[in-house]
């Protein structure tokens, strides 16, 4: 298992990209293949309800995911997120293959702890990863996954209230037209 200090090594990590459509979990349209059996549909609907309750979801494009430095391991992180020119919100991010859903493609799924009431595909998403919660894991049941997601959200919410984490909410990276806009996917050489 990855040690907490090793996971924190690459933090804070700043990245920016356009929001792309993810795997269809948590979105308004399920996108469930017709060959899915009823029990899997019920499991997915339960997950959908959780995602609707906890906030907005946004996914980064492949080039952002593939550009992650090796210090950023798979797992669950917390930090701050901003869509376009909107306010900065708390967020939880899952980085990895989401073994419960058997994903074959690595993703960065951002759960913004705010209800936007609308889709925001194509919007610019800026995030600052500030802390690490846990490694990526598989789950025996969807209820186990949902329980863990709720715990992750509580952990993130609590940690982001600390003074050490709040300073990143006002970081110049999130300000319009800042020199920090040149930090793209962790690279300051732009």
TrEMBL record:
Single Gene Ontology BP annotation: FMN biosynthetic process
GO CC, alphabetical: mitochondrion
Pfam family name, one: Flavokinase
A GO term for molecular function: ATP binding
Enzyme class, first EC level, given as a word: transferase
UniProt KW keywords: ATP-binding, Flavoprotein, FMN, Kinase, Nucleotide-binding, Transferase
Segments forming domain Riboflavin kinase: 8-161
Origin superkingdom: Eukaryota
EC number from the UniProt entry: 2.7.1.26
Pathway: Cofactor biosynthesis; FMN biosynthesis; FMN from riboflavin (ATP route): step 1/1
Protein name in the entry: riboflavin kinase
Annotated gene: Rfk
């Amino acid at each position: 298992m990855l040690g907490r200090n090793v996971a924190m090594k690459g933090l804070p990590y700043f990245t920016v990209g356009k929001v792309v459509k993810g795997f269809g979990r948590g979105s308004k349209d399920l996108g469930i293949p017709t060959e899915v059996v009823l029990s899997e549909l019920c499991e997915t609907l339960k997950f959908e309800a959780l995602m609707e309750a906890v906030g907005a979801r946004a996914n980064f494009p492949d080039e952002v995911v593939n550009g992650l430095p090796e210090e950023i391991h798979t797992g669950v992180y917390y930090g701050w997120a901003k869509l376009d020119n909107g306010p900065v919100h708390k967020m939880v991010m899952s980085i990895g293959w989401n073994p419960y859903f058997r994903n074959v493609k690595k993703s960065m799924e951002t759960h913004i702890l705010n209800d936007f009431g609308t889709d925001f595909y194509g919007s610019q998403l800026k995030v600052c990863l500030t802390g690490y919660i846990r490694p990526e894991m598989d789950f025996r049941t969807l209820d186990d996954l949902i329980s863990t997601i709720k715990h992750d959200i509580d952990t993130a919410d609590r940690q982001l209230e600390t003074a050490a984490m709040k300073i990143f909410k006002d970081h110049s990276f999130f300000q319009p037209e800042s020199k920090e806009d040149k930090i793209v996917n962790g690279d300051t050489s732009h």
